[in-house]
Amino acid sequence: MSIHRPKPAKPLRKRRPSNPFPGIAALERQGGLTIDARLSANEALPLYSESLAQRYGQGLLEQARLYPDPTAYELRRAIASEHGLTGDQVLLDAGADALIHLFLRAFADPGSVVVLTAGTYPTVDYFARSLGLRACLVGYTLYPAPTADLAALAETARRRQARVVYLANPDNPTGSVHSGAALQAFARELPESTLLILDEAYEAFAPAAGNWLMPNVVRLRSFSKALGLAGLRVGYAMAAPDVLEIAQAARLHYAVGTLAQAIATQAWEDHAHRQLLVAATGALRSRFFEMATAVGLRHYPSATNFVTLPLANEQAGERLRQRLLDRGASIYLGQLNGHLPIARVTLQPELFTAPLSEILFDPEEARNGE
Ligand SMILES: Cc1ncc(COP(=O)(O)O)c(C=O)c1O
């Protein structure tokens, strides 16, 4: 049997640089101490702006004054324990975006190939290009609804000797999803030195994909969607410790701030709120489907907090976008496979109120501009 071992980027292959500032929290944990006099970190005096203290409180300002724990120990432990993992199988960063950027940096050298689906989460193509990587795009299968083509992605990764394959599951912008079993079979089909970045930002809205790790897969999660904290910038990766250790050496160690860690830890423990957000989003999704069916508006199935509509042509999309914009609403327009226009609508209660609902569920426009 082949041994999968994703190949690190050149500077991270042998002697990896280590972080010169492991942080005061680590010092306290290692020595079982409390450090009251922080004389090593060059932080400011505890003198707070009155206007800020009035608005946000002194406790918050004290947290903002201090450098964060670069390892996000408490948050990492809480996340790992819920997934039945150890702390070294979890890595925190400033959102799933930061993690995508990190794993591209850590596992692909400039000039090497990254394989992804044509039209999937556009940030990835943007990051890949800005890092000097060669993005190789594979089309979605289109029937019965657009879905990432796992067989073609694996075949392309082998043919092009890709260093990284990116797959969003559930996918943005199609809303489609593959099962955990299909994903594991896919990972086994990849070349031995390829890393699969499996972006599960929307996983909470989809059927459970299971708790599994493989040596060539990093699974990314976000606090921005089902945890409702997009402005906080927190996301985490789950992978084998040796994969995370390599990424760790390329990570901006203070990217997740003290406040972000504290708020994210509390939100993580609030299971009832998480369930509420997912259930409320599910209710909006069902309502959207019912109203769309009633007027004959074509849409793709969705395992996410948005619904995507196929459009007859770009002009239909532009018209819809402009009509909504005139009423103070934004939607996202994109293209699948480089030429199939779509409109993606985030599930928010406002879309069911007039005049937005009249525009979106307009029986005249319901054939999506055809
Ligand atoms: C597929 C996918 N991945 C990642 C992100 C970004 O997540 P975060 O806010 O955690 O960076 C998004 C946001 O829309 C997304 O759609």
CATH superfamily of the largest domain: Type I PLP-dependent aspartate aminotransferase-like (Major domain)
- Rounded to the nearest angstrom, the distance between the terminal CA atoms is 52 Å
Number of helices: 13
Oligomer: single chain
Average predicted confidence as pLDDT: 95
What would you call the structural class? Answer: alpha/beta
* Domain module tally: 3
| Backbone shape | globular
Compressed to H and E, one letter per element, the order equals: HHHHEHEHEHEHEEEHHHEHEEH
Report the helical percentage: 25-40%
CATH architecture of the largest domain: 3-Layer(aba) Sandwich
Question: What are the bound molecules?
Answer: pyridoxal-5'-phosphate
Low-confidence stretches: none
Descriptive account of the structure:
With 370 residues, this protein is an alpha/beta fold. It contains 13 helices and ten strands. It has helices spanning 24-31, 50-56, 58-65, 73-83, 95-107, 122-130, 150-160, 180-188, 241-248, 258-269, 271-295, 314-326, 356-360, and strands at 90-93, 113-117, 134-138, 164-168, 195-199, 217-222, 235-238, 306-310, 332-336, 340-346. The strands form two sheets. It has a seven-stranded mixed β-sheet with strand order 1-7-6-5-4-2-3, with helices on both faces. Strand 2, helix 6 and strand 3 (134-138) form a beta-alpha-beta unit. The radius of gyration is 22 Å and the shape is globular. The relative contact order is 0.13. Residues 95-97, 121, 168, 172, 199, 201, 222, 224, 230, 235 line the site of pyridoxal-5'-phosphate.
